[in-house]
Design brief:
25% helix; 8 strands; 4 helices; single chain; two-stranded parallel ribbon; alpha/beta
Length: 193
Amino acid sequence: MPEDTKSPTPPSGQPHAAAPAKPAVPATTPWDSPTVARLKSQYGSGVQEAVTYLGQNYFVLDASVTAEALRILRDEEQFDYCVDITATHNPTRDKQFELIWILYSFARNERIRVKTNIADGASFPSSVSIWPAANWLEREVFDMFGIKFDGHPDMKRILLPEGWKGHPLRKDYGIIQQDQEWVQINLGIESGQ
């Protein structure tokens, strides 16, 4: 016998309970700290944002000051570990790429993010001289997004084979077509895609 799927009816005279309110959407809040004050005093409008979102502090910097600011964050603010470098791609913007550095200070037990925006086809100064581990991270950003880092000691693919066409984490990338072509040429079989 099928189960009754009707909602239970409240006892007569009692109204239905209202649906619970939707939680508020998290919002950014200003991030005030001595680090923010020092960077703002040095770079002025080059510090476009300094905010906290869901407990994560981040800067948005103008691309013209970002490379120097990264060095200052390591040398003067003790952000001695580059956890990751990544990017996002939004083809509808003039500056399609957002480069993101996630930095950590062991001395302060603090993590921050530094973001900057660059145009498609633009390159950015390498951070390898600041954090040697950036070598592998920048190669991954190049491989997946096509962003080149000037001064990188070995700017080549790290995940995909050298003959691979395009950069798979770009929003305008056709992964199935590329995969089929590469598999046919290099393996001599039809792709399962």
